[in-house]
Amino acid sequence: MELKLFYRTQRELATALNKLVDAYWQEEIKEPELINGILKMYENNPDKLMKDNQFTTIVQQQCGKRRLAVVGKVLEKR
Fold first, then answer.
1. Backbone CA torsion sign across 46, 6, 18, 15
2. What's the rounded Cα separation, in Å, for the pair 1 and 3?
């Protein structure tokens, strides 16, 4: 699965996160790919993903609780 390193907007980042987590749930990618993808997205776009130790409002609205639970667990373990 191809992922960009830098995203222009929070919406683009949220859409990419959705595709990544959905691909994992549909077993199209393996767990290491999911973890690596989330970490790279966060490292290169921290201000678009998190603000004051919480996901930004747009990311919360676009991704939903279940996907963000997965993303949150990955980021906790880094």
1. positive
2. 6
Rounded Cα distance between 77 and 4, Å, is 22
Q: Are the C-beta atoms of 41 and 16 separated by less than 8 Å?
A: yes
Residues sharing a CB contact under 8 Å with residue 60, sequence separation 6 or more, in sequence order: 68
pLDDT tens for the chain, residues 1 to 78: 778 889 999 999 999 999 999 999 999 999 999 999 999 999 999 999 999 999 999 999 999 999 999 999 999 987
* DSSP string for residues in the chain: ----S--SSHHHHHHHHHHHHHHHHTTSS-HHHHHHHHHHHHHH-HHHHEETTEE-HHHHHHH-HHHHHHHHHHHHH-
